[in-house]
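Weekly sync, protein design subgroup
Attendees: M.S., D.O., the rotation student, P.L. (late)

Item 1: inverse folding check
M.S. brought a backbone from last month's batch and wanted to see whether the design step gives back something sensible before we order anything. D.O. pointed out we never logged the input encoding, so this time it goes straight into the notes. Structure tokens as presented (221 positions):
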């Protein structure tokens, strides 16, 4: 039974999980902290659990559904990442764009002259670290981190916002906060959500909020 007291359609859930597994295996996910291999294993475990639930159902008047007989996906190495070469190339391009950004250059140049209060208020260290995090990920071939930078627009917006704040500290109240982002790696909320996922495979089937796979959203100030 679901949380709302309605009977779960395990056949339909199996369809979704098989589609999800195929998608992540071929195209990869968008999880900011976990590899595709970890998410594939969780998906595989859900498939096994749904099959077991179907076996345990009573009054199967028409037998088991066709999806039940689809081969269970194989186990995948926990370090597996889909389209690794594409991620590396996109990270390289993003690095070039970030390094060439005039707003980031300005922030770096002005940072030593800012007060401790300003550095903290404007999240200067975090913003400067955006570039260094990507540089380090490229050097270490960390595909999970590199994947975060495939679409660098949000990072560029954070550089713009920081530059605006430095040029006019009084503009803080006027800036559109959607331009300003903090590093999600420093966000306790993200860390808590991710740590909960390690228990997902051992628990009864629950809704998807507890999964490592999350749409990556940069946190606002």
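Designed sequence read out in the meeting:
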């Amino acid at each position: 039974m679901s949380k709302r007291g309605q009977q779960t359609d395990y056949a339909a859930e199996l369809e979704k999980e098989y589609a999800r597994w195929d998608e992540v295996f071929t195209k990869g996910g968008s999880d900011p902290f976990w590899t595709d291999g970890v998410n594939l294993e969780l998906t595989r475990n859900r498939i096994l659990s749904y099959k077991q639930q179907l076996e345990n159902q009573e009054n199967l008047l028409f037998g088991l559904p066709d999806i039940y007989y689809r081969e269970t996906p194989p186990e995948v190495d926990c370090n597996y990442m889909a389209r690794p070469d594409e991620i590396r190339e996109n990270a390289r391009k993003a690095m070039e764009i970030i390094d060439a950004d005039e707003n980031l250059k300005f922030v770096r140049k002005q940072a030593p002259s800012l007060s401790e209060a300003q550095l903290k208020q404007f999240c200067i260290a975090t913003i400067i670290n955006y570039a260094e995090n990507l540089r380090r990920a490229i050097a270490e071939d960390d595909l999970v981190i590199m994947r975060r930078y495939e679409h660098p627009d949000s990072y560029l917006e954070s550089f713009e916002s920081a530059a605006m704040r430095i040029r006019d500290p009084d503009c803080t109240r006027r800036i559109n906060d959607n331009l300003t982002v903090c590093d999600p790696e420093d966000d306790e909320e993200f860390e808590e959500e991710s740590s909960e996922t390690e228990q997902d495979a051992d628990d009864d089937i629950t809704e998807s909020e507890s999964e490592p796979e999350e749409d990556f959203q940069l946190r606002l100030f």
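Discussion: The CA atoms of residues 113 and 119 lie 10 Å apart. The chain has nine helices and two strands.
Action: P.L. to compare against the previous round before Friday.
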